[in-house]
Amino acid sequence: xxxxxxxxxxxxxxxxxxxxxxxxxxxxxxxxxxxxxxxxxxxxxxxxxxxxxxxxxxxxxxxxxxxxxxxxxxxxxxxxxxxxxxxxxxxxxxxxxxxxxxxxxxxxxxxxxxxxxxxxxxxxxxxxxxxxxxxxxxxxxxxxxxxxxxxxxxxxxxxxxxxxxxxxxxxxxxxxxxxxxxxxxxxxxxxxxxxxxxxxxxxxxxxxxxxxxxxxxxxxxxxxxxxxxxxxxxxxxxxxxxxxxxxxxxxxxxxxxxxxxxxxxxxxxxxxxxxxxxxxxxxxxxxxxxxxxxxxxxxxxxxx
Length: 304
Prior knowledge:
The protein has nine helices and nine strands.
């Protein structure tokens, strides 16, 4: 198994948090962590694999993971390449297909291997949601997944200027790691909670510099792919989006809901909420919406 346990945090309350390094087939070392309910293993009802958004890292979801633990769900998370504690240039992604492949590999080699027979769900925020969505379009992944949760998924991202769509593919080859200073906006409006913004942009593991050309082009590329393939989505899903999100398009989440072939799908739109839903003032209400959906899916599976 291509994973090496580094340390364990005993924690307090209802969770045990573990940290590990996962080595990909490409040889990259990815930082991963997991949260397990501290009671007997038979308390675990299912697994949630969590993928963070662009420029952040999995540790930001510690509070959310512990809430899931309280409801009998074990959580795994992975910092994708160029993010958090993983290998790569900070904030640089040469290919989001690598991140999709890494998620598949982590799911098969670690998560399913360690939790045979337990129902597995995927959670993705923003670009992490796009990665999750592309991954489950692969039948080899979908067969292992009982449902996905997407918060503010990057199905459609509007560049700040139309010319970017034209020049990004060119410059992503000529100068892939170049940082587009003209497009840099430190602290974009992603939450209505000032304290949450302060914590995010003071976090050394959060990339706060200008977006790198290749990274930006990769986001445009994966979002374009997803828009062309929404009707191929068949996995059960819950998509959540704030109507005031200026980072990703809430209308694209509505199109996913309308166009997908999924038999079991739900959408929650939050009036006036911004991009980082789990860091909004109403974060616990949003977490409860997610937990209620997961509980309903687990109830359905238990009746089969």
